[in-house]
Each structure stands twice: as structure tokens, then as C-alpha cells.
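INFO batch 0412 | record 1 of 1 | parsing
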Amino acid sequence: MSRRETPMTRWYWKQIGGTLIEEFCAVERVIGERGGRWIDGIIIKGGAFKIARQSEVDVAGKDIIVIQAKDSRLGMYVMGQTFFSATLMETFKPRSIESIALVAHDDSVLGPIFRSHDRMRVVVCPEEVMIRARMRFFVRKEGISEGPFSETELLRRVEDGQVEHSTPCRRSDEEEWSTVAELLLAREQKEGSQPK
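INFO prediction complete | emitting C-alpha cells
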């Protein structure tokens, strides 16, 4: 999953709830025989609201949502990924499978064709989510600018202790430097003002 698709997948998960597994390995790679196949996200409906590792949960007997995200208009590539990901997940024996093509824009021709197939849906991310997904950040450590980082990468670096809350930070579309703490506070305030 690319830097842009992680915020898209997490946005959808926050709307739905349940347990999110990112980068789910549906097929293990075997050299000379087959390639590995990863799914951007699997949501276990009704599961605890958390992000889990694949090794921590079992999807057998559960209702799941398969997510393939693409920061573009709905196209043949993401449609194929979404369709065949649902088929690959059948080997894990979930109770039910719903498969979502999560995109920046729908397509007036391909969308209806895709939706005509059982279990297939198209979800369009709101523009504000796409803007955040495309946003990049820079941090300044010891006078040296580092980046660009996606919002997800920056938050991961904070969680891992690689970047402190007092570290100078700026968005790629701004000249002014603030701190990581100020950036996180502004993010929380914006999310808190959004209707659920």
C-alpha cells in the first residue's frame, strides 16, 4: 500500500469500525512458482476498534470487508484487484465477504459494471481526505530539513520516538514552521469538529 492509500484505508475503517488489518498477505510468495498477493486492508466487522497484525487475528467464520485503495479514478486495475482479492480471501473461510474499491473518483461507465457483480462496491473518498493523503511534511532536526513524509509516516516516527513533539515541522504547502505537537493538535481539533 502506498503512502497515499494508507490514509484512505484508515478513513474508511473509521467510518465502518471493526478491526483493521493492513497489508494482509492473501498469498505467500514462492520463488519460481507464484508471486505474493497483498490486500490493502481487511476489516473484521464487529471486531474491536483497532489496527491489528494479521498474526493476531483469525478471519475464519467472520464477516469481512476487503479494501483495495487507489488514489485515482476507478479503473480496470483496481477493479481487478478488488474482484480477485475477494476470491483469494475465500480460502480463509470467512462467513461473508464484501469487497470495496476505495478510490478518489468514480467512473460513470466502469462503476455500474463493477457494482453489478455480487459483493463488489465502489466507495469514493471525500476530497478533504484526498488532500490529506497527498499532503507531505518536513521536519527539521539539528538545523537539517528531513522529508518529505506522509502524515502516516510522520505519526509513525513520533510513535517510534524518532521525532519528538517539540521538533520543528511544516506542511509542504506552507513556508511557516511550527512544531509536531502543534500539527497534531490542529489535526485533532479538525477531526473533533467533523460530524461523525
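INFO post-check: The helical segments are 5-16, 76-89, 110-115, 127-134, 151-159, 180-193.
INFO record closed
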